[in-house]
Amino acid sequence: MQGLYAVFSKELRDHFSSYRFVILFALIAMVSFITSYMAGVHMKGNLEALAKTRFPFLTLFSTPGAVLSMVQFVAFFGPLIGLVLGFDSINRERADGTLVKLVSQPIYRDAVINGKFLAGVTTISIILLSIVLVISGFGLALVGTVPEVEEVWRIFIFLVISIFYISFWLGVAILFSISLKSIATSALASAALWIFLSFFVSLGADVLANTVAPVDNSKETEPATIIKNLKIKEMVSLCSPMVLYTDATATIMDPMRNTISIVSIVQRERRPMEKLLSSRFQNPLSLGQSLIVVFPYMIALIAITFICFAISYLIFMLQEIRT
User: Fold this and answer.
1) What is the tens place of the pLDDT at every residue in 205-219?
2) Which pLDDT belongs to residue 138?
3) How many CA atoms lie within 13 Å of 91's alpha carbon, on the beta-carbon side?
4) Roughly what angle, to the nearest 10 degrees, separates helices 241-253 and 70-77?
5) Is 52 exposed, middle or buried (0-12, 13-18, 19+ CB in 10 A)?
6) How confident is the model at residue 297 (pLDDT cuts 50, 70, 90)?
7) What are phi and psi of 45, to 5 degrees?
């Protein structure tokens, strides 16, 4: 594709040389390092319990530090990386008048949008990889535990899922940057969608579930009503990319978690035979079994990332570029 590498390299240089990127990376890295350092100190103070853990190195990422664990921190604040990198990728070029000059060169129009998206994904990958490597170094220095091969693979899968999760928000930011002329408006729209999908969808799921299948805590409710309430809540919550990401990474980073569905856990606790059978499988899941559990969630994250970018690609290719 003619001009793709030129646009890609130019955008990559712009990302790494901008003060916005330096401030954002420094902030996220600082919070991640502090969180993981406190988790490592907590693990070092409980070496006896750590020795009984099957995968002690993974707890460095899943154990809460001051407030959040590394996995939870990426789920809540990782989208900011994608939004900041992409909210002005196209409309800034329009405002500066450089988009017309860019497409007037021997560069295909699709190379512009593809190069910008690939440069953003590469930047996200470098940020996450750097943070994961430094946190792993904290684990080796503070706790002294060496990761097993399966733990390395689980961290790698966590990294891949995180890249797609943040790349989805990069695609959302680019979509608003293409659709809206104002840079401030595209930034506000991207932030508003992030807040809605990440926080208000879960609240809406609770309201809808309690409306359709109300559960009264002061009275004894039928098990069928409770299960229906949880099913509705779970189905609506899956509309949130943060829920998809949290459930997928929690299962990958915690091998003892053998299911994602809340309904399955409730049914297991209410049915003595299922509870008896499940008690026989208290060993951690293998990597293959964990992948089977989270496979639908991973496919959903990858799908919405490509769909969002495809919509951005289509709109950009059909737009008229004027001076």
Assistant:
1) 888 888 877 776 656
2) 76
3) 20
4) 160
5) exposed
6) very high
7) -80, -10
